[in-house]
Amino acid sequence: MIGLQYRIERAGFALDVNLELPSQGITGVFGVSGAGKTTLLRCIAGLEPAAAGRLAVAGEAWEDTRAGVSLPVQQRNIGYVFQEPRLFDHLSVRANIEYGNKRRPGATPTDFERIVELLGLGPLLERHPAALSGGEAQRVAIARALLCSPQLVLMDEPLAALDRARRNDILPFLDRLHAEAQIPIIYVSHNIDEVCRLCDHLVVMDAGGVAASGPLQDVLVQLDIPVLGGSNAGSVIEGTVSGYDSDDDIACLDFSGGQLWIPGEAGAQGDVVRLRIQASDVSLCRSRPEQSTILNILPAEVDAIQPADGAAVLVRLLLGNDRIVARVTRRSIRELGLREGESLFAQIKSVAVRAAAGRAPSR
Description:
Order of helices and strands: EEEHEEEEHHHEHEHEEHEEEEEEEEHEE
Shape: globular
Helix content: 10-25%
Radius of gyration: 22 Å
Distance between the termini: 32 Å
Strand order of the largest sheet: 7-8-9-3-10-11
């Protein structure tokens, strides 16, 4: 585990965190602007001299204020990816990537080739930053961070400066990084879709503190965290591709609560995929509709009901061993007379699909 505890007090802001994070996979740090996400990363990197606390990575103490231990920035084996790529304009892509290894030698030519292939940078190696798109430049910055052979990678909203098209270009490469890299990554974002797509563990920050921390699926279905309400409300489950109907271009996915049908191919049969279901795409009914354009109508049990903002209520549902969230109105709850423990049907209008954490899809 990665153990960290930090406290900082400034005018109008205080950071106070105490966390144990997994030493593999991607940990997302999510919250609104000003929640303390970047400040937390700066503490881990040793860039906040006023920070008091402790940090242990792989059993090694990098920081312990009480014991007088504080490794300087250059001795913390960290790769840092910022919002902006921060590439050297006078160097080629190849030289920019190799700069990371010059700072902390240890990578081999095989490491270089593997990272270049992982991030799809082969055709770009002889270009200079001015000839790169925003997404390409950010992939180069990630490659540079990885080539310094870090024990830990910090990513501070690496897609925030990109438009939607460029974000969509780079996300598949981050999927591959997630599936194939063995280095723990702490990924800061205020975009819930990125977090649900990429992360295994989730830390939710609010006003400098930790509102929740745990496995992604467990944290997302906590109904009492305001920042996970509204348009951010939803859930993530895993399913297995069980079939594909080419005539209708629709795939069937099995999960603990039954089957889900989604447009397009979701992967090869047997592939495990991650399913993102937004709460606004789930509606509830007492009896199963006989005729409906919604293909996914599944039996469910009401697990919890929580008032949200305005007229909205969040309802956590059990479907087999999985939990999803529906966002409905108070009036709907009253007119249906819903109570915890009752059985009903969940209509799921839309499902986003990607390869599951740590599993590369069949090629």
